[in-house]
Amino acid sequence: MTASKRKKIADAILAQVEERGSLKSICPSDVARALFSAQEWRDEMESVREVAQDLSDQGLIEVTQKGKQIKNVLEAHGPIRLRKVN
Question: What is the CA radius of gyration of the chain?
């Protein structure tokens, strides 16, 4: 993934979680759908998850699954959510 693509995804994640606030979360697919075409967004989900992991590692967002914070996004199976850190 290019640095510019990584930054574009990171900026979109941070903007969306900021807009939702710390009590609500977003789905990574919301980010993918906002940035990529209808034909591309599913293929970009792994990129969105990778960037979400980076942002989580930096302490900028929290990643949850079934309401509980998870540490390794890339090993998570099933839906995850992203939210602003309190």
Answer: 12
Distance CA 86, CA 78 (A): 24
Q: Which residue has the tokens 């979360």?
A: 25
Facing residues of 77 across strands? none
Q: Are 76 and 70 in contact (CB under 8 A)?
A: yes
Q: What CATH architecture does domain 3-84 belong to? A: Orthogonal Bundle (1.10)
Angle between helices 45-57 and 3-20 (to 10 degrees): 70
DSSP 71: S
Mean pLDDT for 53-76 is: 94
For 24-45, the pLDDT digits (tens) are 999 999 999 999 999 999 999 9
Domain boundaries of the chain, sorted by first residue: 3-84
